[in-house]
Amino acid sequence: MPNPRSDILSNITSTYLAPFDDFNLDDLPTAIWVRELxxxxxxxxxxxxxxxxxxxxxxxxxxxxxxxxxxxAFAQLSSLEEFVCVRDELYLDLNTSLSEPxxxxxxxxxxxxxxxxxxxxxxxxxxxxxxxxxxxTVILTRADSLGxxxxxxxxxxxxxxxxxxxxxxxxxxxxxxxxxxxxxxDPKNLVDVMSVDVGTAFYGDESPIELCQxxxxxxxxxxxxxxxxxxxMRQPG
Length: 237
What we know:
By secondary structure, the chain is an alpha/beta fold. The protein has seven helices and eight strands. The protein has helices spanning 4-9, 28-41, 66-75, 123-130, 151-156, 182-185, 208-221; strands at 14-17, 47-50, 82-85, 112-116, 137-141, 163-170, 191-198, 231-232. Strand 5 (137-141), helix 5 and strand 6 (163-170) form a beta-alpha-beta unit. It starts with a helix and ends in a 5-residue tail after the last strand.
């Protein structure tokens, strides 16, 4: 006899996932539940927003194998087209001594990707982005190493497909990346570098981290993230 619950789950196309406590990932039953859920809907799921503290449990402290379960869970999402990770870069490495390709780099249908606190100096990060043939938009919130990053060159040395790169932060923490050589390096503006300033609270009682993560999460849940009001990064004056 068919299981109605399984039939419903296997037709889910979009969902928001935040099953763990704010700062606790060491919960094997919840991890198994996530794996089972994604197993049921991986064939139909196209859009996913996750708010999970992946860095609350590092591989050397994972005595229950929670990270292995979650790694297997997210590895199933081969049909995913839009993905938002609110708190980090979907950190699911299983060994801190080895450099592992990110799970999202295996999602060949991915078109839109939003990550938090990515190290933009990582060659593996740019290699992984360039390997996704359908990718058209990347949103990076509070990314690291932007002062030494040339996003146009990082992309164009790997591929000449057009891409929109949007950098999100509170205004005072933005890193100015514009370089005059961009006109020569990218005369057709194949790499559209843009930025978003996240508003701060009137009383200033929220940290930039909280403000940016909440902005990403709310806009993703409301379906407004990919059409957010980003401004082109241009030469001043």
